Amino acid sequence: MMFGAVQLGLLAACVVLFVPMGMAGWHLSRNKMLFFSCALFITLAVGVHLMPYFPSVSDFLSPTDIISSPTGESSLRRDSCLFFLHSGVYSGDDECESDNGCKKRSWEWIQSGKVAECQFQRLKKLDASILLNGSWVVVAGDSQARLMVVSLLELVMGSEEMERVRGDLFKRHTDYSVVVDEIALKLDFLWAPYVRNLTELMVRFKGNNNYPDVVVMGAGLWDMLHLNNVSDYGVSLTQFKESCLALMPVSSDLDAIDGGLSQAPSTQLVHFFWLGIPTLINSMLNTAEKRERMTDTVCDLYNNKLIESELLRQSGGPLLKLDIRLLSELCGPQCTVDGMHYDQLVYDAAVQIMLNALLIESNQKLQ
Question: Is the CA virtual torsion 325, 150, 355, 253 positive or negative?
Answer without folding.
Answer: positive
